Amino acid sequence: MILQKTLDSTFxxxxxxxxxxxxxxxxxxxxNFLPSIIIEMKGFAFQxxxxxxxxxxxxxPSYDASVLKSGPGCRARYEEQVWEYSQEGGVIIGxxxxxNFIPILASPSFNKFMSRMKxxxxxxxxxxxxxxxxxxxxxxxxxxxxxxxxxxxxQLFDSxxxxxxxxxxVIRIMYGEKEAVPNYDCQRRGKLAGVIGDLTSVTTVAVANxxxxxxxxxxxxxxKNIRFTNPVGEEMFFDEDGNxxxxxxxxxxxxxxxxxxxxxxxxxxDGSYPREQQLTLxxxxxxxxxxxxxxxxxxxxxxxxxxxxxxHPEGEPVCCYICVPCxxxxxxxxxxxxICTPCPEDQWPNEGRDRCFPKVTEFLSFEDxxxxxxxxxxxxLSSLTVIVMMLFVRYRDTPxxxxxxxxxxxVLLCSLMLSFLCSLLFIGHPxxxxxILRQTSFGIIFTVAVSSVLAKTVMVVIAFTATKPGSRLKxxxxxxxxxxxxxxxxxxxxxxxxxxxxxxxxxxxxxxxSEVGKIIIECNEGSLVAFYSVLGYMGLLAAVSFIVAxxxxxxxxxxxxxxxxxxSMLVFCSVWVSFIPxxxxxxxxxxxxxxxxxxxxxxxxxxxxxxxxxCYVILLKPQQNTKEYLMGRFNANM
Length: 638
Known about the structure:
The protein has four domains: 2-68 and 75-238, Rossmann fold (3-Layer(aba) Sandwich), CATH 3.40.50; 247-285, no CATH class; 308-358, no CATH class; 369-637, Rhodopsin 7-helix transmembrane proteins (Rhopdopsin 7-helix transmembrane proteins, Up-down Bundle), CATH 1.20.1070.10. Helix content is 41%, strand content 16%. It has 14 helices and 22 strands. The chain has helices at 2-13, 27-33, 124-142, 163-175, 201-213, 369-394, 399-402, 406-422, 432-466, 479-503, 528-551, 562-585, 589-620, 627-637, and strands at 68-70, 73-75, 84-87, 91-97, 102-107, 116-120, 152-158, 191-196, 226-229, 235-238, 247-254, 262-270, 279-281, 308-311, 322-325, 330-331, 341-342, 347-349, 356-358, 360-362, 507-511, 518-524. A hairpin with a 2-residue loop joins β1 and β2 (73-75).
């Protein structure tokens, strides 16, 4: 055929450039997909061009530019030699191919568009794609069963593997003439059905973006769920996404001065076969460079070792990736893992993040250093309280003990002793019973202690006020007021605790998320509102006691505990105000440690400020523990 001879002569003699990137199909595969371009729509013969499949090439023809003078003035224009290959037909298929390989700049001009490019070094392996396309079109036109009453034509351009030239040529195809004029359609050869893409992704994406703006696509995506047999007996099909099975020839490029250099087939890949049969490779047929001491690597990165996963940088080839460590709580136990696997909730990765190990169980135990220290302090303070209580029992009839409300002193000592021992409930493996007893016993016992201090302070004020002539408070002097304050105040706290236990009681909880690699066994308060209500009520009593004691500090000090109570309440309130932020900012066993420390510190403040001065007088200043001494100081102060 004259056209084919002319094309052969043109391509092998022209200056052009070609891409090094292979397409998805070899020349002999293209014809297999062409019969799939027919689609019938609802009973009448409406044929549309479907798919010749993705050849993957784009062409950049050469330019010859010259400056010509015309008419009265001068204008710059260029005469361009466009490598166009066409055939008339009722339906036209546009094609962008890479035939030539190396572009050179013949003569730079003032404008990049006006620069003259020449493409040199044509490669037969690129040219065969072009010939396969023409052969397939001719075969379809000769077979009346494929496209009855339709003749296919084509308009083909060489992109020279340049995306700019590829865009210019696709505009030429849509315009219908050699000139590239956007937004005009001068197509006189037939209806343009679509454009076949190029071999390289760079040029193909550029062509697709331009064609999409004008309503054209990649032809092969028109066909979906189609299966047929080509003339050589091979079964072809397109899936529901319009994709045909990938088919590749694996070639070995051999350069030899003594033999014919070129590509030799050593294997193939066929996506239509079952997975285990898709890849075939004849390793014995592969000829390696004799200067290479090992097989060349086909990736940009070393394999990712266990504990790492692959991530692909944007814009890099698929074979290039970066190895990043697995995130916290995740592992990868094999090389080149795409994703890391999270460990079970009760396990945690090792340092290499390639295996999961059981998490460490943590709670404040008696064997722990902190547990031993806090247990020792608790027993020491409770023992000291018992000793002071015994001392008070022995000297219970002395003036200094009787003058400061002996009954309230014993109640306060008992509550302080129990509060010190109560801290032991917070140490050891938490269970539901100990969780319930912890907070309720702590709240009630400390409320008894603080209400006793409040009662002592109120009784001091009443006692000194009742000594004034005509005072009506004389009838309130006695144990009924003090006992009533303690009972009523403690009853309110008991009521709060009963409501707490009946609505949402504390319980043992397993916390797997608060600390990395640890399972914390702790007591869940159940209701935080109830927990802070207990602390808030206790703080209210302490604040009232502090205010009353502060107002009574100027009364005669022979019988007056107000000064000591003021200081003890200041210590108590300071401890519990600083406790709340410390409690909320700690986790695990250290949270329990903070609460125990607050209990021991506040109890020690009450014990030391109220009872140590009395013990000092009883043991070291017995001469001051007489009625005469106390009355003398009282009269002197009055």
